C-alpha cells in the first residue's frame, strides 16, 4: 500500500517559523535557542520550535491572567460551553491536518491518529463543554444552636482557580492537551500549555483554531520548549494550578516544586506497570485479539496499557503458543501507510531506552517473541514478549513505556493479587474472566486507579481516571476534575 498524501497546509505549517502562541497570536520567542522536530519514521528534521525562556513564560502567564480576570470571567458558563463545542467542531473539520501532524511527529499510525487521537479529542471536549453550566455549590443547614431566635444558613461556591499550567507528554499530545484545555476552560480557568519538545506542533495549531472558535485571546496560550520551560511555568506566581502528565521522576520533581511555590495546586498523571490477569476460565481465542490491541496500541507508548501479563498456569502453554503466533502477524511499517499495524517509537531518546530493555532481556535469554531492533531508517522495534526471572526482575518492575510486555504464570488468586500489587505503580489493571463472583471478590484488593474486566486501555470521559501509589495524584474526567480546577468557598449567614 502507498502512503497517504501529506496535505499542502500541513507542509506549509511545518515550514513556518514557529514561536509561542501568546495572547491570541503566534509571537517570536525571546529565548533564542531552538529544538529540531524529527520525524521518527524517516529520522529527518521536519521543523524547528523555540525554547521558551522565563520572559516568554511570564509573557504567556500574564496574558492568561488578564484573560482570566477579564474576558473569560465575563463569559457566561453557557457561552463557555458553546465556544468549547465550536472548538470541537473545528478539530473535527481539521481532523486530517491534525492527524497528519501527530503522525509525522510521533510515528502514530495515521488511522490511530484519525480515529483515536482526533476523534477522542472531539468527544472529550464536547463532554467537558457540557459541564460548563453544571458546576454548582451546595446549600447546607449549620448545626449552631439558636440562642435568641436568630437563624443560620450556609452555602458553597465553586470558583475557578485561575491560571493553569498544563504540561503535556509526547505520546498523545493533542488529546492530553485537549483534556487540560477542556478541564480548565469549562470551569472558567485560563491556561498556558507546555507541550513536549518532541510533539509541539499539533497544540500550536489547536491554539490557532481556538481563536477561530471565538475563545478570547489569552485564554489558551502555548509556550514551547524543554523541561526548563516547564519549570519556569510552575514557578510563576500567577500560576495557581499545575496539571502534569508524564513520567514518575519528573512528576515527583514537579510536585515538590509546586509545593515550594506557595502550595500551588498540582495534579499528577504519571506512569504505570500495568497488570492484565488472564484467569483459568478465560477463552484465549476471545481474549487475545482485544488484549493484543490494548497492549500494543501506539507501539505500547500508552500510560494505561498493560506491561505485565499474569496467566493461570493451566492456560500458560496455550497462551504462549497463541500470542507468539499472533505477534508474528503484526505488520510493522510506515505509520503513513494505512495497512501498517505497528509503527516506530516516537523519538530517539525513547528508542534508546527501549533498546536498553531489549538488550537486558537478550542477555538473560528472556525473549519469548519479537525482541529485534529493525535495521534501516526509523526507530522501529518488534512487539516483544518476555519471560521474567521473578518479581524482583527489573523487567517486571520498571516501566518501559514501549511494546515490551512480560508474562508470568500464577497458581491461585492469593498469589496473583500479591504479584499484581508488587509494584510502586498503581495506574490500571485488568481481569480477563467470565467468573463474575471471582472478579467481584478481587476488585477491591487490586491496587489500581482504573480496573477493567475483559477490556483494557479504554478511557472514557464519563469515567474518572488517575493513579494510585506512585502513578499520581488526582483524577481526571467525569465530575472528578472539578475539585482540582476550582476553589470551594464556604459562606455562612446569620439572619
Ligand atoms: P516526561 O516526564 O519526560 O515529560 C513530560 C512533560 O514534562 C514534557 O512536556 C517534558 O518536556 C516536561 N518536563 C520534563 N522535565 C520537566 C521539569 N523538570 N519541569 C517541568 N516540565 C518538565 O514524560 P514523557 O514525555 O517521556 O512521557 C512518558 C511518560 O508519561 C511515561 O512515564 C508515561 O507513563 C507517562 N504518561 C502518563 C499518562 C497518564 O495519564 N497517567 C498519560 C501519558 C503518559 P520535554 O518533553 O520537552 O522534556
Characterization of the model:
The protein is of the alpha/beta class. It has 2 domains: 284 residues, 3-Layer(aba) Sandwich (Aldehyde Dehydrogenase, Chain A, domain 1), CATH 3.40.605.10; 188 residues, Aldehyde Dehydrogenase, Chain A, domain 2. Helix content is 40%, strand content 21%. The chain has 17 helices and 22 strands. The strands form 6 sheets. It has a 7-stranded mixed beta sheet with strand order 14-15-16-13-12-18-19, with helices on both faces. The chain is globular, with a radius of gyration of 24 Å. The N and C termini lie far apart (76 Å). 51% of the residues are buried.
Record the SSE blueprint.
Elements: H1 8-15, E1 20-22, E2 25-27, E3 34-38, E4 45-50, H2 54-69, H3 71-74, H4 77-93, H5 95-106, H6 110-131, E5 139-140, E6 152-160, E7 163-167, H7 173-186, E8 190-194, H8 201-212, E9 220-222, H9 227-235, E10 239-245, H10 248-260, E11 265-269, E12 274-278, H11 284-296, E13 306-312, H12 313-328, H13 348-363, E14 367-369, E15 384-387, H14 394-397, E16 404-410, H15 413-420, E17 425-426, E18 428-432, H16 436-442, E19 450-453, E20 468-469, E21 472-473, H17 481-485, E22 486-494
Parallel strand pairs: 7-8, 7-10, 8-9, 10-11, 12-13, 12-18, 13-16, 15-16, 18-19
Antiparallel strand pairs: 1-2, 3-4, 5-6, 6-22, 11-21, 14-15, 17-20
Bound molecules: NADPH dihydro-nicotinamide-adenine-dinucleotide phosphate (NDP).
The site of NADPH dihydro-nicotinamide-adenine-dinucleotide phosphate has 29 residues, from α9 and α10.
